Amino acid sequence: MALQLRPNCEFCDKDLAPNSTEARICSYECTFCADCVENRLHNVCPNCGGGFALRPIRPAREWRPGACVAKQRPSDKRVHLKYSLEDIAAYSERIRNIPPQER
Ligand SMILES: [Zn+2]
Ligand SMILES: [Zn+2]
Fold it and tell me: Which ligand places an atom closest to the C-alpha of 44?
């Protein structure tokens, strides 16, 4: 099963193309832009409390048979946060100072 390449930032709804260098994901593939991760979420995923990593870019070119963005399409389902901004701020405040490897 391939990584789900989701089309947008869950927080600000910015488009994140499969080759975007701004996309960040948590271990559950919750997807946000770099700006939101840094300045709004403070590296706390609002859905699971984990930290984020750069989302790897799926190659556009088929270097190996079947392994490229045209053969394993990105998701077209836009995802939106289900928590209020106040809830997210309090949640992040509570967790942000604990390093991700100790959460
Ligand atoms: Zn964003
Ligand atoms: Zn998450």
Answer: 2
